[in-house]
């Protein structure tokens, strides 16, 4: 059985991941709604833009909360993160487009939620074992 310090560290780690993901999700939906509902941009065009903004939020929060990185942010780290995050984002987008194609009347923010949950595990594994792995 893990000791108390180990349990607390795991809770902090996964809590950071959930908080960062939640704030990135809120950013994704907010930007999507602004573009789609506010500016009447088609959902399949608005979504990659909202994902891009949410990705920057996710990187900044995950490097601080989930995988604390010593030192200032580096462009190379962000580009590594973005490359791997786009793998998860492509999966997220495919689920989003597929659900909208099958159920065009569904509320798009709900579809973003479904697609984001589907891509969450892939995103975590990419961050944990590649971008922010212990050096």
Characterization of the model:
It is built from four helices and no strands. With 135 residues, it is mostly helical. The two termini are 27 Å apart. The mean pLDDT is 89.
Précis, in short:
By secondary structure, the chain is mostly helical.
Described by strand count, sense and barrel closure, the largest sheet is: none
- Strand content is under 5%
Provide the structure class: mainly alpha
Helix share, percent: over 70%
Number of helices: 4
Mean pLDDT, nearest integer? Answer: 89
Based on CA atoms alone, the radius of gyration comes out at 16 Å
Q: Which regions are unreliable across 5 or more consecutive residues at pLDDT < 50?
A: none
Would you count the extended β strands for me? 0
Question: What's the SSE pattern?
Answer: HHHH
**End-to-end Cα distance:** 27 Å
Tell me, what's the shape?
Answer: globular
